[in-house]
Design a protein that fits this description.
Elements: E1 2-4, E2 10-12, E3 15-19, E4 37-42, E5 54-59, H1 64-77, E6 81-84, E7 90-92, E8 97-103, E9 109-113, E10 116-120, H2 125-134, E11 137-138, H3 150-155, E12 169-175, E13 181-185, E14 191-192, E15 195-196, E16 205-212, E17 214-215, H4 219-235, E18 243-246, H5 256-262, E19 269-270, E20 273-275, E21 282-284, H6 292-310, E22 319-321
Parallel strand pairs: 5-8, 6-8, 7-22
Antiparallel strand pairs: 1-2, 3-9, 4-5, 9-10, 10-16, 11-17, 12-13, 12-16, 14-15, 18-21, 19-20, 20-21
Bound molecules: flavin-adenine dinucleotide (FAD).
Length: 331
């Protein structure tokens, strides 16, 4: 793209735009002619734990216009709206979700301009990292292998010990339930450990995010760094069984996994759910037979045991979504 600069000279801006497909083959609409809003959608097909009942309605918008239509659809029926990305950090009730679920995974365009890498929220974080490297930009590689979408990562400020996604985030474009579009610059105050509080928090759907990255010609080195992050996760057994990652946030006393492990809870089961042998803070669904209630009950048992034995009040990291009995949801 050639633009006239403030000094009257022509400058060339390299703008690379791509539409990328997330892998996965889930039961969502695949072509533009498919209706993008569907009734009675089984959520277990859309969560990494493989559990959860039916959502009354689900929408897969591919454009801001369709997203606005989905918001209007819910508003006109006076039903609640729930947002889901990759479903890798949520526990959906076996009773399902009342109202409309809006999935982000058809919003996958991205482009770069100079140091700025802009991506829609539904692109998987792993795909976003690969694409940014191919565009000659680095800075996200340490998050390699982190499951889920860019939007989900921002909503929970996902990350590892060395970095969180907000470290390189410049702005978020989001839509409020009235269909209005907004931009929020990242001032650093919105994000904390595994937490974000952008305006309206869960009322807002993140559409796009902009990251400030570093230009590089050493793309092979960046690819290697990203693959190394993925390899470490594989070695630690992250992908061996269905899970939603860490069940609890790390308390000030240290690693939640170590605390749970020290109490001998690895391998503990409730129904089909089990405390992982590789990572005590992961609850897994090893044979695909667990219900969300099994997983919830096991998390409650862990919480009770840790509190009784150490006095530490672990806080849940995995988000409970859908029709849970509110009085019963304390971890
Ligand atoms: C094996 C494994 C390892 C993991 N390791 C890590 C790790 O190292 N560090 C870490 O932080 N997490 C980790 N996780 C948890 C999870 O991968 C991350 O939290 C991820 O960023 C969630 O993204 P998602 O798209 O799946 O979000 P979802 O699970 O779909 O949603 C999570 C929350 O984000 C909200 N949300 C999603 N998309 C949007 C949107 N577009 N707009 C507004 N709100 C939205 C949802 O409403 C929900 O409240 C791990 C999970 C697994 C299964």
């Amino acid at each position: 793209m050639r633009l006239l600069s403030a000094t009257g000279k022509h400058i060339t801006i390299v703008l690379m735009q791509m539409k990328i497909s997330n892998e996965g083959g889930k039961s969502n609409p695949e072509s533009k002619s498919d209706p993008f809003i569907r009734q009675n959608v089984l959520m277990s097909a859309h969560t990494s734990l493989g559990t959860g009942g039916f959502a009354d309605w689900a929408a897969w918008p591919s454009t801001s216009e369709q997203l606005r239509e989905a918001m209007e659809f819910a508003h006109s029926r006076n039903v609640p709206v729930t947002y889901v990305g990759g479903g890798t950090n949520i526990l959906v009730s076996d009773k399902g979700i009342r109202g409309l679920v809006i999935f982000s995974d058809h919003l996958t365009s991205c482009h770069s301009r100079g140091r700025l890498f802009c991506t829609q929220s539904g692109l998987s974080l792993d795909n976003a990292i690969n694409t940014s490297i191919e565009m000659g930009l680095t800075g996200l590689e340490l998050l390699g292998g982190l499951p889920g979408t860019v939007g989900g990562a921002i909503a929970g400020n996902a990350g590892i010990k060395e970095m969180t996604i907000s470290d390189v985030l410049l702005y978020i474009d989001y839509m409020t339930p009235d269909g209005a579009l907004h931009r929020m610059q990242n001032t650093g105050e919105t994000f904390a450990y595994h937490h974000s509080s952008f305006p309206g928090d869960e009322q807002c759907f993140i559409i796009e995010a902009g990251f400030i990255l570093n230009p590089t010609r050493k793309m092979a080195e960046a690819r290697l760094k990203k693959e190394e992050a993925l390899r470490r996760r594989t070695e630690h057994g992250h992908y061996r069984y269905p899970s939603a990652g860490c069940t609890f946030r790390n308390p000030v006393e240290g690693s939640a996994g170590r605390i749970i492990d020290n109490l001998g809870l690895k391998g503990k089961t409730v129904g089909g759910a089990q405390v992982s042998f590789s990572h005590a803070n992961f609850i897994i669904n090893p044979e695909g037979k667990a219900t969300s209630s099994d997983i919830f009950e096991l998390s409650r048992l862990i919480h009770e045991t840790v509190f009784k034995e150490t006095g530490i009040d672990l806080q849940r990291e995995v988000r409970l979504i859908g029709d849970w009995d509110i009085c019963n949801t304390k971890a």
